[in-house]
Structure formats: C-alpha cells, structure tokens
Amino acid sequence: MKNIAKFIAVGIVFFLSSCSLTDLEGNLDNPNEVGVAALDANLLNNKIQAEFGDFFALATDPSMNLCRMTALIGGDVYERGFNPQDFNDLWSRGYQDVLISIETLLDKTDGNAPFALYSGSNRVLKAYVLLTLVDLFGDVPYSQALKGGSGAANFNPGTDAGRSIYDASIVLLDEAIALLAAAPAIAGSRDVYYGGDKVKWTALANTLKLKAYMNLRLTDTDAAAKVADLLTKDLIDTDAEEFTYRYSSATIPARARHPLYRQMYGTATGDVNGYINNQYMNICYKQKGVEDPRWRYYFYRQVGSIAKAISDEPESIPCLISPYPSHYPAGMAFCAFDPGFFGREHGNADGIPPDGRALTCFGVYPAGGRADLNDGDATYQGLTVAGQGASGAGIEPIWMASFTDFLKAEAALTMPTVGGDAAALIASGISKSIARVNAFGVAKAQAVPANLIADAAAYQAAVATSFAAGSPDDQLNVYAKEFYIALWGNGIEGYNLYRRTEKPGRDDMQPMRGATPGKYIYSLSYPSDFVNLNSSTAQKIPTAVNKVFWDNHGDNLSF
Amino acid sequence: MKRLLTTLALVLAGFGLALAQRTVTGTVTGDGDALIGASVAVKGAGGGARTDTDGNYSVQVPADATTLVFSYTGFATQEVTLGASNIVDVTLKTNTQLDEVVVTALGIKRDKKALGYAATVVSASEIAEKPETDVARALIGRSPGVVITNSSGLAGSGTKIIIRGVSTISGGTQPLWIVDGVPINVSANENNDFSDGNITPTRNLDLDPNNIESISILRGLSATTLYGSQGRNGVILVTTKTATASKKRYTASVSQSFHLIDAFVPEYQNKWGNGFDGDYGEFFSNWGYVFDGNRPPNNPRHPYFEHKGLFPEYPEFTSAAGATPGTAGPYIPQAYPNNVKDFFQTGNSLTTSVNAGVSGDMGSFNVAFNRTGEEGYIANNNLDRTTISIGGIANITKKLVFNANFTYAKTDFESPTVGAGLGSNSNGGPSVFANLFYTPRNINLMGWPYQNPVTGTPLYYRNGGDITNPRWLLENSRQSSKTNRFFSSIGANYSILDWLKIGYNLGIDTYAEDQEYYVNRGASGFPVAVAAFGTGLRRTTSGANTIFDHTIRLSAARNLTDDLDLSANIGVNGRQDTYEQQGVESTNQVVFGLQEHRNFVDHNTRDLRNNQLNFYQRQIWLGAFADATLGYRNYLYLNVQGRNDWTSTHEKENGSLFYPGVSVSFIPTQAFAGLESNTLNFLKLRLGYGTSANFAPPYSTRPTLSLVSGITSDILGTVNALAFSDLLANPDLRPELQKELEAGLEVRMFKNRFGIDLSVYDRTAEDQIVNRPLDPSTGFGNTFINAGTITNKGVELGLSVTPVQMKNFAWNLRANFTKNISLVKELPEGSDEIYIGGFSNLGNFAIEGQPYGVIKGIATVKDANGNAVITSNGDYKQSPEIEIIGDPNPDFMLSGFTDITWKGFTLSGQMDYVHGGDIYSFSAGALVGRGVAKELESFNPTLTVIIPGVLEDGTPNNIQLPASGLFFGNTIIGGGPDDKGIFDATRIRLREVALAYNLPKRFLGKSSVQGVSLSLVANNVWFRAVNTPKSSKVDPDRTAFGTGNGLGFDFLGGPSARRMGATLRVSF
Questions:
Q1: Whole-prediction pTM value?
Q2: Which 3-state string (H, E, C) describes A5-66?
Q3: Left, alpha or beta for B169 (phi > 0: left; psi -120 to 50: alpha)?
C-alpha cells in the first residue's frame, strides 16, 4: 500500500507543479495590451488627429466622383455607381476611430482646465465629422450612437434627423469657441493641424459654422442673419489659418503618403489606377480660352500627346474610335484631348484597357505628385512611379483660405441681406487659390517655371468679363465654376456646392456616359456594415431621389 | 520492490488457496500465429492468466470450474468446456465485428455493443499508404456525419473537418484530435488575411498516416462529454502503432510509395483572343478578334512589343507587326492552346516508411520512421515531412504498467502565394492563380519571358504592367512554414485491486513553427490599400504552441452480481495551452531577389493590415469528471457521465460549468432468447443525451487600450497613438452549453452479411458565445456576447452488404449517408443577421430562420412572374441591398465503398456524391466572364445579344448588348449581380480506385519475409460538379477560407489534384 500512496503522491505533485494550472484568474488581463488606466490624453489626441485626416480622405473620394472631378466608373447608371460596402471604411473611421476617441478624450478633459485646448479642438473635429456624415448620408446615428460600451449598451443605434445633428454640431462649435478662448498650451501635445494655436482653432470653428449655415440657407430663414454675423468673426482667410491634413513622404506605413498619390504613383512604372474626369481637366486647362495658372500643379500628363500614347500602346485609348455621345452638349470633353490629356467619362463602366501609361495623373497639388513641366513636346513620355515628385507628401485641403472668400461671394450673390461685392470676392478667392497652389509646388520642389505658367491677371480678366456680362444665374455659374476649380482635392465641398447651387451647370458638367443614367446620387447609400449589423435601419432605395435635409431643389442633376 | 509486490499478490490470492485447484496449460493461436497476451479467464471465478510471448499460458482452475474463456482484441471470444485434460490449446477466430472494441473518450476501451452513441472506427488499412499525405483527407467519406473539405490540391494545404454541422455562429468548428490519449493542436496558424493567402497547413499534417493503428471518430456529445469543451465539435481519436503492443514477438515492415500528382486544369476555347467587343486589345478579357489568320483591323502590335529592347532573341516582339511568329511583320494573334495547362507540372510524392517492434512479457517496444517528400503540381510547392516515433509499454510488475510514446515530426511546406482572386487581379496580396486561369488565348505564357533580365521585375502582356506574370510569382513569391514538433504521451497505470486501477497520463505537445511569406520587389495588381506588396515584402513569424495535459483517473470494473456489472471512472484533468509568436514584416526591398530582412528599408512589428505579429496567449481548463456504465446481463447498458470545467477565460463568477450526459444501449437479440437467428444476427437500440460546453477565447472580458506606435507618419513625423481597442469587452460573458439527443439502431442480418448502423441526432447550441460584429456607429468593431441558438438535426446511416462470400472470393459493399439540417433559430437582440465570412456585402451570414452560412449578395431583380428585370441600358436590374442568393449546405452526402477480394487480389473503390448546396464560384465566373471557357467555342463574340427578361415597363427586353456586355458586363466579373455567380454544387466523384495484391505465403517459403504486397491507388480520379460549366472544373470541395467558418466560396484558388501511384510493402 505504501507504494500506491507514493505513486498517487508523485502523480499529484506532477499535476500541480508542472504548470500553474490553478492560476485561473491570473489570465484574464490581456498581456499584450496596455490597461485602461494607462489612457494618455496626448496619445489619444494623436489618434484622433491621424484618423481624422483619413476620415476626410475617405469622404472626399466618393464626393469627387459625384461632383464629377474624378470619374465615377462603378456603373453606367447612378444606382450602380457605388456599392454600399464602399463606404464601410468611411463609416468606421468616422464613428469607431474618430468620434468614440473624441468621446473618450472629452470624458477625461472636460472640466479639466489644463486640457481645455483638447476639449475645444476636439469639439471642432467632432462637429466637422458630424456635418460631413450628414452632408454625405443624410440622417445618421447621433444621440444613440457610441453607446456600445456604456451601461445601457445600444448595439443598434437609430438615426437622428440631419437637421438636429446640424444644430448639435453648431452648439459644439459654440462650446469649442468658448473653451478655446481661455485654453492654455498642453505640454507634450502634438497638433498636426494648428500646432496648438487656439486662435486658429477658433477661426476654424467660426468657418465651420459659416459652412453649415451656407448649406442651411436654402431651408432656414435665419441663416442669412447668422452668416452676416459670422462674417464679422475671425475666419480662415489666410494661408497660415488653412485647415489641412499634411502627409509625409514616409513609405511606411503606406497611409503616410497621400492616398491619391498612392493610386497613381505605383510600385510598377506606369501602373496607374483611377481616372480623373475628362471634363474637369478640360475646365481646368483652358476652357475659358486662357490657361488656368494651376493646371500644371493639378495634373501630370504622362504623355505629350494622344498620338504619343497611341504609338506607345495602340490599344491604350479604345474610346478614340467610339462615336461622340449624341446626348453630350457641344464642347464637352470626351475620351481624350490634346495635348495629352486622358481621363475617363462620368459613368464609363467599361473594362480597363491597358491605359496605365497613357493616363493623366494627379499632380503635385494636393496629392504630392509631380508638376507638369512639359513645354509642348508632343513626343514626351514620362511614366509615373512611386517616389516621384513630392513622394506623396501632399495635403488634404479641408479648408483653404480661398474657400472662405468663395463662400462670402455666394452669400453676396444669394443673400441680399448679407451683401458684399461678389466679383471682388471671387477675384480674391481665385488669387488666393493660385498663390497657394503655386507656393505649394514651390515648397515641394515642384515649381513650374514662370514661362510655363499662364498669366494670372489674364485669367482673372477672363473670369471678370464673363461675370460682368452674365445674368444673375450666369454669375452664380461663374462663381461656382471658380470655386469648383479651387476645390480640387476637396470633393466634400464640391459635392455640397453642386447640390446647393446646382452649378456649374450642364454645359460644364459632364453627363453620364449612358444616355439614361437614372436618378443622381443625392446622398450616399448607407454603408453595408451599418445596414447589415444594425437592426434599426434599412437601406435607401437607390433609384429614388434621396436628398439630405438642407437640399430643397428638384431633381435637376440626373444627367 | 518486486518481492513486496509478490507478497502482496500472494496475500490477495491467499483466499483462494483453501480450495482444491488444478493447473491447466496450453497455447492460444489465431490467424496462424501464437497470440501474445491473450486473456484466459475462468468462468464464474476470479483469476485468470495471459499468454506469454509464445502464446503459452498456465492458469489455476478451481475444481468446480467448468469453462475457460479465451479472448483477444480483434478475435472472437471463445469459451471452452473443460474436460479431464489439463492441456487446452485454442485457435481463436478473427473478429466477427460482434465483439468489436472501440476506443472511446479518455482512451477507455469498450465493447461496441455497450455504447449508447455512434462511433466509427477507421482501420490502418484505410489510412496508410494512401496518396494523400494528410491523414485528415484520407478520412473523407469514411464516417457518416463528417464533412471534410480542403483549401486546394496544393501539397500541404489545409484541411477542414466539420462533424454534425456547425453549431457555432463564430467560434471554432474543428474537432479535437487525441493521439494516444492526449490532445494535440491541429490549428492553421494563419498569419494572412484570406485575401492574401489561404493555404496555411493545418497542423494535423504532422501526423504520419503510416503509423496509425486505428482512428475512432466520436461524433455526438454523449460520446465526447468527458473531453470537456474541447470535444464539442467531435473527437478524432488516433491510436498509433508505436503505442500499441503487437500480437507477435517481432514485427517489422518497410513500405515504399510513389505517387504522381496532377491538377484539374480548365479547358479553353481557342477561337478568338485578347480584347473587347471583337477588337483586339491588351485587356484582362478575351473578347477580341477571331483568329482567322488575318491582321486585326486596329493593327495591333505584339503583346510584348514594349519589351522588345530587352529580348533581341525574340524578333517577333519587334513587330508592330510580324507575319508569322519569329519574324518581323504584322502581328497576327494566334492561340496557344496549352498556355495554362503547361503552367502546371506533374507533381510527385515519395514516401518511405519503416516500422519495427518487439513484444514480450516485459512489455513492448516499437519504432516507426516515415519520410515523405512531395512536389506539388506547380513549381516551388513542396512538402517534406520526417516523423520518428518511439513507443513502449513496460510491464514493471503484473500490476504496474508504464507506457510512453514519443513522436518527433519535422514538416517543411512551401508554395508560391495563393490569395483570393475575384476575376480581376488579386483582391489582396499576390496570388499565383488570380489571373492565370483567364490568360488570353494568344498569350504564350510559357514561351515568352516573364522577368526583366536587368531589374528582375515581372514582365507581361499588359502595357500598364498591372498584371503580375504568374510565372514570375512562381519564382518570386512564397508562403512557407517549417515546423519542428514533438508530442508525447506518458502514462502509468497501477492495478490496486483486480477491479480497480489508477492511472496518470501526461500529454505534451509542443511545436515551433517558422512561417515565411514573401514577394520580391515589383509585383503589381493589388488594391491600393495593400500596395506595399509591390515594394517587396517579407514577413517572418515564429510561433511556439505548447499543450500540457494531465489526467489522473481511477477506474473500476467488476461484476456486482451475476447479472450486473459496473465499470466506472472518476478523475481530474488539467490542460494549459500557450501560444507565443514573434514576427516582423519588412517592406521596400533594396536589392532585388535577396530575401533577408536586412535587405529591406522598413521594418514593422505589425503586418500591412495592421495585425500584430507579436503576441502571447494562454488558456487553462481544469476539469473533474466521472463516468459509470452499468451492464445488465450483457444486453442492457446504462451510462451516466458528467464533467465540470473551470476556465481561465471567464470572470470568476462565470468560470465554471457542469455538463452531464446519459446514454442507454439495449440489445434485444441477447435479451430475448430465440430472437437471434441466422436471419437476424444482432439488433441494438441506443439512446443518448449529451452536453458540452464552450468557453470564450482568451481576453474577451476585460477592456484594453490599443497602443499603436507609428500609426502613421505625417509632416511632423511618426505618430504614436492610443485608443480603446475595437473589441468591446464583456465582463458578463458566460460559458455556453450545447445539448444533443441521439438515438440509434444497429442491425446485422443474414449471417452478418448485411448491416445497418443508423443514428439520428438533434443538437442545440443555445445562448452561444458569439463574436458579434458591431455597427461602427456603436463606437466598437465587435464584442463577444451570449446569444443566439443554432440547431442541427441529422441522420447518419452506414450500410454494409456482402453479396458474395466464398473461400477465395468476397465482395463487400458499404455506404455512408449523411444528412444534416442546420437552422439558425435565434439571433442576438436586434441583429437580423451576423456576418460570418467572406466580404460583408458578399459572404456567409447567420440569419434567423435560415440554415447556417447562407450566402448573401446582390441579386437580380425579378418581376412577379420570375422574369429578370432589365434596365434601360439593357443590363440586369440589381437589388439595392444584398439578399440571400444561396445556401452552401448540401442536402445530403453519400459515400459508397466496394471491395472485391479474389485470392491475393483486392480491388476497392470509393465514390462520393454530394447533393445540393450552392457555391459562389469565381472559377466558373471568370472563365466565362473573361471569354476563355471552352463552352463559348461555338459562339461568335462579335454578335450582339439581348438578355432574356422584361423592361421596367413590363415589355420584353429588346435592348441589344455586345457579347461582352452580357458575358462580361453582366457577370460577377464585370459588376453584374452576384446571383450570377451561384451554382448548384451537386457533385459526383470517383474518390479512390485501388488494386492490391498480397503475395500468397506459400511463395515466401520459410524465408523471414512474412508478407509482400503491392498496391496501385488512384485518388480523386474524376469528379464533376454537374451544374457548373463543365470546362471550368469547379470543385466545390475546396473552401476559400481555410479552417475559417465561411463556406461555399471559390476565389480562384489552387485547383484540385488527382493523385495516383503505387506502394510496395514488405513485412517481416
């Protein structure tokens, strides 16, 4: 029996000693991550700022398709232009990365005076995200959102009316302005937008209120008074105040470089993805008879002529043998045009020909690519590849100084009680835009020699002439087209402008490639993650006119 | 010590000494050999003996005893009435199945007739020396209720096993593998998104099929309760040869196999070439100019014209225009009919296997060695495996037995990278197959260069360079793993009393797996988000997985009365799993070709999808279990069992769960005298109720922050960030309980020549632990919650018939039938559906009231009469939201086996049939959509077509489309509705044909050679998914998600393979 006991004892010792099997509770905390107690405001603020930049990038991308800056190629009818899952990243970046992080940070900083700058600046970013979500999608979750982790967890937040989210955003901006007024600097803070300058953050808050009221002007009779009041405040009207996310040329992680740059400056030479809308290039090149001083910064042509593209690869531009679409108005760009511009039509869902070496690419502004320095050499060929130009160290032009002048011009044209000299404001906007774009190219070592840049004065004169000669409707068109050109890279304001003013008009905006494209996309379909994972909502009917709350126009953009 | 034990034995035996006794001796033989260790029992009295190494025994028999009972595993038990003689020699007859012994949970051996649940035994001959090197694939069709799929026909790629349907919405579905009584890890340690790579081996690959003695497949919960939560998906119990004592004193065998491996390559049209709408052009698609010997009207150049300067040895490249290949002149496209076929090679597999063992009074000792070298059907796909096993049983005394079994396995696997292709480049990382299958007919893939001789980067026909040449990827991309594994089972058993034993078993399974994934600089054709693949990428990880498993068990077996016997077990079990991984990913290769981290500019501890490559994970289970079987007169058995688990993955108040089981087995043919006859030999009814648990994955209950150093780099420099993790912690998470009711019937008739083994089951998994993806507007990405109910009901039927049974000729037929009906009964609050796998807009979902895993995607809009609605542009009108477009679950599955034995020859075969189920196939979609499928041969691509359907106003569609507008623009490749990619997955397959010849013993004479056999085997000989386009060779047995929960998708992965060859085996 002694042996048996010994045997059992040895067994039990083996059992208990060979590993800490009984330590069940010691394994609940994830050893790979830091605990909640380690929450650091500066590191959280860094997260918000980086993800906010990406949120803008994801939001501007479909918006540029819709305001016909870049080509919509998902389908030949609007209902097939996008798939709901195309917006999943935008949705999760907005809510799951930016907004929840702002909530977490505000919990920590609100009522904590040394961190007032974070309480203020993050309210501004939160308002921007909310306004953008409403502008793109219409009604979205707000009051029930971000409650996954709270006591009464809500995994199926319902939507709030767009108007109420606008109102809440304006309240947030007002709170931000108050908080920023007395905010001290924060030690160890890193601010890619304004370097911790509370005055600039305040200017941004005022400007965002102006942006919101300009959308509200269609449906809200109080908007004019609010706009008039805001014009007396400090707005973003100098380059130093501009609101941009600034990328770097770092190769890792990939998102460090401008996303438009990554599309068109690939690892393989001439491996270009995506298309610029042909008519947008036409407008920005010399539609007015005089060259736009910005186009060499906006676009980069890989070939000096269409003939060069064809000689390089005969099948690269198959649409050259297609007939000019009968439903296109005269003067509309189609397929490709010399010298060497080649993009795609709005709503051309055809297969992708071997056109990567022929396509016109994003230039230095704002994508951080190359400036177009080809001085009329029709045989020029310079294919894009990663590392060229500013190596992707571009900007997201979220709000440039020129944009404010344009909004002021629109106020003058549309709100008599606000007033102002529209022509002068447009001219100011154009000159700020030209100067900024030029300065950007210079700063990125992509300067265009003076002899290649069109004369800004001649350009201004051409605009002024057509403005002066036009009817009020024409003047609105002139205004909108100049804003549209200055907006390059910012589809969000382009899409808002287009829906708010229905300008530029049909002579300027390229129709869909097919003659019967269905209803225009007046707001984006809901992301599939939202519709499929949240029981409180259903998808919009894509063939219907799904307008956001501030848009009171008829169905005039469905072409 | 020996003396002490002897004394003890004498004392215990002392009670019997008073009675008169005699000694009976003799020899036990069976199958022509002396049987070692056969049991000799005196009926109606205690005591008994075992035969020695020569088959001799000696037993003390009380004067009043009349009968001796001889038994031996694998042979029929035989009773011999004692006469006057003290010498009784017995020859046992080989097993008639009636006394089949089944290894059940915890290695407890049971009479099959006592089992109240289904168990299938697969013998060595069904697994060993097969062309498939992965033992899991050799099990296909062998048991009803078990569905086995694979990720591709590539050597070493993973295998997925589902037993009795999927009972979890998002948890693991793979069964537990137990080798010689201890658990081993069989995961695929995926370090890739399925879009980047889906061929990671499952680690059951480390098992040597030739060292397997038998496999028991336990399917139901009543069979697996004792294994705890790990056994809830079924248990595959492997007994190795090295852990088994041989019947003979010496055994040895050598076998040598050689098999050839061939891919099932699609068939192609060769009538027209690259282009669109009848015009020649360098498109992805093949809707171009007809090969009529003329120059296409748009005067194209040679597809490699832009590379002409690099290759003066190919003068035809220079021609904007060459008349015939090889000369300069107008370029005239011509077909290269074998351009895809020749991409594949005939692979081969060479296996050498040696087993040897001795067995005697003191115990036994066995060694096994196996070496498998396999070259897949494409270049650089190789598998190399060496296993060495040593096992022994030491009978220290008659009461104390030690056993140990050690296996070392070294498995090296490599393959060019295979990711998910959606018919237009890869959806993720580079994939050697993504663009291969629709190579335009006039592209001489195998005859033209694929690499820039100066820079090393890929070359191909697309001018923009946006397709990476598949041949370049063969040479310049790799996914590999190198595994060093050691697993062992060590046990000690002590017989305290005749009927009472205590045993301790320690299992250690540890492996180090070094994985490598790389692509050299210059590849292209990925989504912009993962463009870093193009800069050259190298990812290496080292994972160490360790399982420690301890079990102490007290077991009793005794007759309580003449009629009643009891066998019972009580014990404790502790298991700890740890996995630790270190890894780094480098991008931006400096010098082309060199794959060393130092040759890259950027290094990161996360991969390009931001997944951490370095982490540690530990999980502990403690269990206490008890099990008792009460047998009444050998015809009624009642089994009661239960286990309580404590786990490290739940908060303390939720960390414990008890789960019981009960089953009954009743054998009328033994209960009622006269019922058993030559017509009805055996009848058994069984009923079981079993439960099992499921525990949360580690670290699901406590919130953490997610620290990302270097989340990005902006104009100010590197950004370090901290935020809440996407996972919402749930401190209230409870374990999940699964329940199953199972009933069965076993019948044998007509002198055992006809048999039925039928099971029906009803399994419910309630209040599941679900990884619920959250709408990001909640602020989080996902959380674990208790919710949802899935039921699986099914029928499993095994049939066997022996139509002919003669002295030299026998013909056996067997069939296994499986039907499982899955139903998602209930989902968590507020969610209509939960996304399981694939893409959120095209994937598998759990939806209330639907079978598990239905496929949702964009559907074609139909009018009230079922006609497709056509848009004003002549295309299918598409549903605004995703809808259910398919159900991947088959209606039923049937496997049939036949073997015919004539003298030394055995001809055997296996056919599998799967009825119903759907597959979303990019293989079919891409071959048709890109215009290369053979079915299109008779079609003229320049004609226009009108899609059958009605316009929105209800009138018949009259809008003409170019051929490409229908076949490309309205298929899944060109943006058409997803339901156009759904095919019925009904398939029939000739799984195996084998011819074996055993040399008759008389030819061997008196040499030491005991047997020589030669077998010829062909595996996966032929298959046809009858409702898919024939030429595309769609194989729905492939799964694009590895062991993930998604099913029914084919993303242009590796094709299936046919394997055939021969094995020569000599035993001594």
A1: 0.85
A2: HHHHHHHHHHHHHCCCCCCCHHHCCCCCCCCHHHCCHHHHHHHHHHHHHHHHHHHHHHHHHH
A3: alpha
Are A316 and B463 inside 8 Å of each other by CB? yes
Cα A266 from chain centre: 21
d(CA A316, CA A309): 7
Q: Is A387 on the interface with B (CB under 8 A)?
A: no
Query: pLDDT, tens digit, for every residue of A420-436?
Result: 999 999 999 999 999 99
Is A413:A400 a contact under the CB 8 Å cutoff? Answer: no
Are A23 and B692 a contacting pair, CB within 8 Å?
no
Mutate to test the interface with B, among A6, A46, A48 (most CBs of B within 10 A): A46
CA gap B979, B1063 in Å, rounded: 46
Contacts of B953 (CB under 8 A, 6+ apart): none
The answer to whether the CB atoms of B773 and A533 lie below 8 A apart is yes
Two tokens, residue A283: 């407008």
3-state secondary structure of B193: coil
User: Is B785 in contact with B772 (CB distance < 8 Å)?
Assistant: yes
For residue A271, the chain B residues in CB contact (below 8 A) are 464-466, 524-525, 534
Q: Name the CA dihedral angle for B423, B424, B429, B434, rounded to a multiple of 10 degrees.
A: 50
Interchain proximity A77–B873, CB inside 8 Å: yes
Q: Do B465 and A270 touch (CB under 8 A)?
A: yes
Task: State the first-to-last Cα distance of chain A, in angstroms, to the nearest integer.
Answer: 96
Task: For residues B1043-1066, give the mean pLDDT.
Answer: 89
Q: Could you give the CA distance from residue B507 to residue B511 in angstroms, rounded to a whole number?
A: 13
| Residue A384 near residue A295 (C-beta atoms within 8 A) | no
Interface A-B: count of C-beta contacts within 8 A: 391
DSSP bridge pairs for A188: none
Closest CA to B243 of B406, B120, B110: B406
Q: In whole angstroms, what is the distance from residue B597 CA to residue B567 CA?
A: 60
What's the DSSP call for residue A111?
Answer: T
One-letter amino acid for residue A308 of the chain? K
Q: How far is C-alpha B501 from the geometric centre of its chain's CA atoms?
A: 36
Output the six-digit token pair for B827: 């989902």
Residues 148-187 of A with CB under 8 A from B: 148-149, 153-157
Which of B463, B882, B964 comes nearest A357 by C-beta?
Answer: B463
β pairing state of B21-30 and B90-92: parallel
Angle formed by the axes of helices A116-137 and A162-181, nearest 10°: 160
Minimum Cα–Cα distance from B605: chain A residue: A253
Q: Which of A4, A30, A39 sits opposite B699 (nearest CB)?
A: A30
B471 closest CA partner among B302, B344, B333:
B344
Residue pLDDT, tens place only, B843-876 = 999 999 999 999 999 899 999 999 999 988 788 9
**Which of B400, B502, B775 is best to mutate for the A interface (most A CBs within 10 A)?**
B775
Residue B267: C-alpha distances to residues A14, B272, B371, B924, B933 (Å): 62, 14, 36, 11, 7
Is A315 close to B298, i.e. CB distance below 8 A?
yes
**Contact between residue A176 and residue A123 where contact means Cβ atoms under 8 Å apart:** yes
Mean pLDDT across the stretch A222-248? 96
Prediction ipTM score: 0.92
Q: Between chains, do B779 and A100 touch, taking CB under 8 Å as contact?
A: yes
Which chain A residue has its CA at the smallest distance from B701's CA?
Answer: A28
- Are the Cβ atoms of B463 and A269 closer than 8 angstroms? no
Contact A18 B298 (CB under 8 A): no
Contacts of B55 (CB under 8 A, 6+ apart): B27, B28, B29, B33, B34, B35, B36, B38
CB contact under 8 A, A252 and B532: yes
